[in-house]
Amino acid sequence: MEEKKADEKTGKKHLCLVCARPSDTVICHACEDRIRGEVIDKKREAEKGKS
Ligand SMILES: [Zn+2]
After folding, report:
1. pLDDT tens track for 1-51
2. Is residue 1 part of a domain?
3. Structural domain count, the chain
4. What are the two backbone dihedrals, phi and then psi, of residue 18, each rounded to the nearest 5 degrees?
5. Which residues make up the environment of ion ligand 1, defined by Cβ < 5 Å?
């Protein structure tokens, strides 16, 4: 029962850690995609630097 009260207080949704918008997850899908893209870009750059 207390858990339900806590949910009402904070809201069911989390806030995205990156853009601070309400999100079902810790990081919203938009930011997740962006971060994923940046990681891939960095990997590509690293591979380019090696060869
Ligand atoms: Zn976000």
Report:
1. 555 554 555 556 789 999 999 998 999 999 999 999 998 899 999 998 876
2. no
3. 1
4. -90, -50
5. 16, 18-19, 28, 31
